[in-house]
Amino acid sequence: MNESSLTRASAAxxxxxxxxxxxxxxxxLFVAFATIALCGFGGVLAxxxxxxxxxxxxxxxxxxxxxxALCSMLPGGNILNFSVIFGARxxxxxxxxxxxxxxxxxPMLLIMIIGTIYAHYGEMPALRRALTGIASAAAGLMMATVxxxxxxxxxxxxxxxxxxxxxxxxxxxxxxxxxxxxxxxxIIPVSIGISWVRL
Amino acid sequence: xxxxxGTLLMLAGxxxxxxxxxxxxxxxxxxEMHRYAVDVQHWLTDRQFADTFALSQxxxxxxxxxxxxxxxxxxxVLGAVxxxxxxxxxxxxxxxxxxxxxxxxxxxxxxxxxxRGLVPVTIGLTAASATVIASSADxxxxxxxxxxxxxxICYFFRINPIWIFxxxxxxxxxxVV
Lengths: 199, 177
Fold this sequence. Notes:
The structure holds two protein chains of two kinds. By secondary structure, chain A is an all-alpha fold. Chain A is built from eight helices and no strands. Chain A has helices spanning about 5-10, 25-40, 45-55, 60-75, 80-120, 125-155, 160-175, 180-195. Chain B has one domain. Helix content of chain B is about 80%, strand content about 0%. Chain B has helices at about 5-20, 30-40, 45-60, 65-105, 110-135, 140-155, 160-175. The relative contact order of chain B is 0.12. At the A-B interface, helix 2, helix 4, helix 5, helix 6 and helix 7 of A face helix 1, helix 2, helix 3, helix 4 and helix 5 of B.
């Protein structure tokens, strides 16, 4: 059942031009996700598309979008969920474990090295000043990402309720600093209810 | 800083619960990480949290790698591994089973309602993350100007953020920020 979506899509005429190679081996899975992790600077979505769809052709663009949409509905990191679902689709539980190890292993090694350097030299004036600059820029990068995500909500809106949910969530967490679980328990049913009514 | 089994358990418990509430990716969970690690447990100061976020953005890989750095700061290598396992374990298992079952509910009406309903909540959470990061990184008007300039540049232009970080680091080194 896991591979049924794959077989069906590859038989469809629209995707006949992108033939599926044989299912990836465990080592190929590890290398692919390690590549995505190490190249994906500041977000890994673009690189996962490049590796999975364009280079290795393990997924058609449609399958990629479908899988990614599913992952963004689930809690947790999107790309982490993606690696689990993708690895499991081809190689079962072991495939999922290998994929997530490839995705997390190299960056974790790197960040522990960086963390060690920070622990020793974090108070050095020169590093301190450079970090202040980077931290300010990192905050700005995130603000730009939010602005890009929010734009369609406010520009193409069909109802005031949807942007209102975004603003209410922001106010509850960002301004009031209420605990996340309580806020989500209150706002998610409301938001899903709104989109259900507008179907 | 105590790094006994109790601390590891607290790391594991916190991130395991947090992972289930981090919808729309790891960045939406930043305010809760900040609230717990800085305000509740005093594992990090405000400035160290801003540094931790900046360093995790400098490291290639998933955004969630910040979890490993917080764990590392609190309890070393073991702390990093425990925190990351806790953050990825429960949701990874959920993803495994949902992935297997996904064929069954594809195209159902509630599927669309749920995924569309989560979008504005995710955006609100990410906006909250951005303000938490900006206010804990807030050092003065020059730093605020760097934040504003980065926001504008990244919104209007497609540019690899590494160049902006490099420029911001140089501005900092030069003593401007």
